[in-house]
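Hi again,

Forgot to attach this to my earlier email, sorry! This is the prediction with zinc ion bound. I've pasted everything inline since the attachment limit keeps bouncing my files.
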Amino acid sequence: MPKAIYTIWWDNTLGPLVGRSYPPGNELTTEEALVIFMGHGVNQEARVGYTKLDRGLVVSLLDAPNCIAVLLDDDDDAMLVERNLHRLVGEIDFNTDDWDVEVRRAYERLLDLMEEASHDALLSDPGIRRLITDMQAGRLRAVSPKHVLRVTAYYPEVAEYLGGNADEVARKLRDLESAGILTAKTFGRSIQCMSCGSTELTVTIMCPQCGSTELYNVYGVLCQHCGARVQTVIMDDVSEVPCASCHRPIRVAGLEILSVEALCSDCGTATEDPKITLHCALCGKRLTIADLLSATGLAYYLSES
Ligand SMILES: [Zn+2]
Ligand SMILES: [Zn+2]
Ligand SMILES: [Zn+2]
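Structure tokens for the complex follow:
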């Protein structure tokens, strides 16, 4: 279980300030707060940071100007803590008047979230039980991803005022516009299907010669065992690919891909520059330049009353 939780605030003149921590007795130093904050990049570009301090590993999540950091115990699963930190940050009241209470509540909630993600707790969820039963009975063979790109406008600088996730922030801004409090003005161009209005896309990769979508992707990968750089075709539904150099299996979950080349199975053309097309994920229409550039991004200004 995580040992402590910290809040760190960015101040434009003073830099990172140690906020509150819980439980007592594990307080950060200013230097440690600085190191954690720097883990998010000089321009604060990384949302998640990992920092190895003398006292242990720290996972932190930046929701500028706030940073929530968690000190891990040696046997904590860092990825599990990171996932729950994402869940937790959505529930923290960054505008609280009483951070002592809020940080204690956050710590206790994090422990609850970690508990809810344990093996037995997951299996006590009726929906999850139904899923596992259906998979065991063969009614559902695998849970496969549908690759959809969402083209959403983000307004990060108002997130701390409005709370919630990016979608909720955009909705609140629209509410403020409808209520006449803010005025929307054009800002850049955004992508929207002109047929159905969706901003969700799927990407199709085609042979530049014959237009076929039957492509083998030949990957240059790094073997985890012998360190050799080898070429391999990665078919769907495999958990390992063989190394052409040492012949040991390379696990796909940790695969490091160095290069990709598409090989057309219809005409044999090999290319590093295949034709890429975008389709609307909702109505399936192939998106044209008009769809890609016709919608307008919106910036919001205070309405003149
Ligand atoms: Zn190898
Ligand atoms: Zn082809
Ligand atoms: Zn559409």
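The helical segments are 30-38, 78-89, 99-116, 119-123, 126-136, 159-162, 166-178, 289-293. Residues 208-270 form one domain.

That should be everything now.

G.
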